[in-house]
């Protein structure tokens, strides 16, 4: 994996770059649509490439491990072959899902024992096994196994958890570095900074993570309920420590405003279920602001969903039609809204990149945050 | 509306033709995907044109009347404008849904009073009002308001019901002929033959319906639970009476075998929810036979869904991936299976048309029925 920085903004820490993988180029800053179980919900793969213009998508280790399972994925030749997505894939480590979805789980030094949310069966994830799983899934970028602490979190718990995450990282790296890719293309491992919302823990964790000298670094444990200002504060602090010549990935973030603010702090990569999950509830992100399409005011609004954004889905269908589909519980509602929202997210980071290259990011960002976050 | 017959099979009553409407040409025999509430479930409009190659889709008067409602549809400029489908549309009369979906309904000579399945509100459909509604929806082909009898059905009830359907038809025609289209393009009205599974009633009904001399004729009240042989027998009898130079539409039919057999009897138009409804349950119709994709045998079958059929959806995704999506309850499962099944149905009638033109329909049909109905 290579990371090249093409431009830096002079008024903030935003940068425009590109990550080269064996499955293609990722222009940064980038938003990565979430394809939990090997499918970005309600979106065809060709829509990801042709309409949304995604450069990379996510897969979830926890979900893919449980279903379709490692035997199927391995026999298929990895996730790219299995789901017919030939561009880059990043897999999370499954840590977050083990804590959030699994009813009962026991976290020990050795690893985590948990019950499947599907059938209640018992499973064990160790840092080593999670590396093996992600080797089999075959993502281009794989994530270290960590504990994502909730918010709020006691200092003592956050410290102990962070220290274990660091020890687990050592085990992840040892396993990753002593094994080879399964399918002939290279993979890279990103470690994850933790430390909850405590400055000294975040500083300590960023230093430890940086010392591992991996090809890219991630920030986890944010966007879990804390105020946005606290998230920005932690992100700024950590970005000041993580090496500037490597990509920085802020996990699970966020709203359009969150993304634009974090880009200004030096973040290059984002993922979030918000554009797809909210789409399924009728919430649209548009170039003009946020729309709750269920509102009566859209009932007879026959204008396109987002003419400025362009593209088939956002211009062929009207707001009134989409409202009707959402209220009628039609599949097509989720399909239209998901493609639209993701197209908007990818448009937003592409605009951000162009503004960074033009040297105008900071000013544009302040205006854009107002524009895209207003309720229509 | 014009109907031209281009070829007739010499060994059976199959014919290849074309219906000209102001929204475009419909090559017959044709299968019409069902877009109940103004959307063919889980399918984008561009997929209907580009992938499935549909010539015409259906809308349901009952559903569209309740949601989005006539004010929205009229303000939009009709259903074509509302759902961005620019090819022909046929609407059923709502009769079938009033009987099957509405909890309580009272059928009288004047019309039907029923309660909405959505909110329990009370509504009244008369033959005249159903014409007015379909004028507002703006379908190219609209259907007469009829009573669809269940199977089995007492002779006396079937006779009385049929006679009322005939009287309603007179009222439909009077209203239709004394009103004008709402949106500048012409509409045509098809009457519906009833008579349950009684030969003399079907004969009588076909004669009455033919005497109205509309531009096309439909056969209703079949495919409601009766044995297939009985459906073919009634269809053959009715096709012998309905004028040969006008299109014949067999409503709500059916399996690939039903369609191929009915084409041989002289039917030109079909609609059915089967390809989309069964898709959502993981049942695939393919060029090689029927697949229950949930079966364990497809778990590691990484071959395309239907290589012979061609097209993005049927060749880009594997059986194993689709199985995984169905079992995981992913939206994309319904999307893939629906586009695939409809692509197959449209392929089947296109093949039938070519065989009729080649003068080889009867022999091809007997082979094809075996092939496409076998369980894989």
Automatic annotation (TrEMBL), chains A, B:
Which Gene3D superfamilies does UniProt cross-reference here?
A: Queuine tRNA-ribosyltransferase-like
> What GO molecular-function term can you cite, just one?
glycosyltransferase activity
Q: Where is the tRNA-guanine(15) transglycosylase-like domain?
A: 13-371
Q: From the record, what ranges are coiled-coil? A: none
Q: Where is this region: RNA binding?
A: 252-258, 276-280
Catalytic residue list:
92 (proton acceptor), 271 (nucleophile)
EC number assigned by the record? 2.4.2.29
Family matches, as InterPro entries? ArchSynthase1/Queuine_TRR, TGT, TGT-like_sf, tRNA_ribo_trans-like
Which pathway, metabolic or otherwise, does it act in?
A: tRNA modification; tRNA-queuosine biosynthesis
Q: Which residues bind substrate?
A: 92-96, 146, 194, 221
Kindly state which reaction or reactions the protein catalyses.
Answer: 7-aminomethyl-7-carbaguanine + guanosine(34) in tRNA = 7-aminomethyl-7-carbaguanosine(34) in tRNA + guanine
Quaternary structure, per UniProt, is: Homodimer. Within each dimer, one monomer is responsible for RNA recognition and catalysis, while the other monomer binds to the replacement base PreQ1.
Q: Which family does it belong to?
A: Belongs to the queuine tRNA-ribosyltransferase family.
As for what it does, the entry says: Catalyzes the base-exchange of a guanine (G) residue with the queuine precursor 7-aminomethyl-7-deazaguanine (PreQ1) at position 34 (anticodon wobble position) in tRNAs with GU(N) anticodons (tRNA-Asp, -Asn, -His and -Tyr). Catalysis occurs through a double-displacement mechanism. The nucleophile active site attacks the C1' of nucleotide 34 to detach the guanine base from the RNA, forming a covalent enzyme-RNA intermediate. The proton acceptor active site deprotonates the incoming PreQ1, allowing a nucleophilic attack on the C1' of the ribose to form the product.
Check the record and name the NCBIfam families matching this protein: Q_tRNA_tgt (TIGR00430), tgt_general (TIGR00449)
Q: What is this protein called?
A: Queuine tRNA-ribosyltransferase
Q: To which species is this protein native?
A: Rhodocytophaga aerolata
Gene encoding this polypeptide?
tgt
């Amino acid at each position: 994996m290579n990371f090249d920085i093409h431009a830096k903004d002079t008024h903030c820490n935003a940068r425009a770059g590109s990550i080269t993988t064996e499955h293609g180029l990722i222009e940064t800053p980038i938003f990565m649509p979430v394809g939990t179980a090997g499918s970005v919900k309600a979106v065809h793969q060709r829509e990801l490439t042709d309409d949304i213009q995604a450069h990379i998508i996510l897969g979830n280790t926890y979900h893919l491990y449980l279903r379709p399972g490692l035997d199927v994925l391995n026999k298929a030749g990895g996730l790219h072959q299995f789901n017919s997505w030939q561009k880059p894939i990043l897999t999370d480590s499954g840590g977050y899902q083990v804590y959030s979805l699994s009813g009962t789980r026991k976290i020990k030094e050795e690893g985590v024992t948990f019950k499947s949310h599907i059938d209640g069966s018992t499973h064990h994830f160790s840092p080593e096994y999670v590396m093996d799983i992600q080797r089999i899934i075959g993502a281009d970028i794989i994530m270290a196994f960590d504990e994502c602490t909730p918010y709020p979190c006691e200092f003592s718990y956050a410290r102990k958890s962070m220290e274990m995450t660091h020890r687990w990282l050592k085990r992840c790296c040892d396993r990753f570095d002593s094994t080879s890719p399964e399918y002939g293309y290279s993979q890279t491992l990103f470690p994850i900074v933790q430390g909850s919302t405590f400055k000294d823990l975040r500083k300590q964790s960023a230093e430890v993570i940086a010392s591992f000298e991996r090809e890219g670094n991630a920030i986890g444990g944010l966007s879990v309920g804390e105020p946005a200002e606290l998230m920005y504060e932690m992100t700024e602090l950590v970005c000041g420590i993580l090496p500037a010549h490597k990509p920085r990935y802020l996990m699970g973030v966020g709203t359009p405003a969150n993304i634009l603010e974090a880009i200004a702090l030096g973040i290059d990569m984002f993922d979030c279920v918000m554009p797809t999950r909210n789409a399924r509830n009728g919430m649209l992100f548009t170039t003009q602001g946020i729309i709750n399409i269920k509102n009566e005011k859209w009932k007879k609004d026959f204008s396109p969903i987002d003419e400025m954004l362009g593209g088939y889905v956002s211009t062929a269908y009207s707001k009134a039609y989409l409202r009707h589909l959402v209220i009628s519980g039609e599949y097509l509602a989720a399909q239209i809204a998901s493609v639209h929202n993701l197209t908007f997210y990818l448009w937003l980071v592409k605009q951000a990149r162009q503004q960074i290259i033009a040297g105008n990011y900071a000013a544009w960002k302040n205006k854009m945050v107002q524009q895209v976050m207003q309720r229509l």
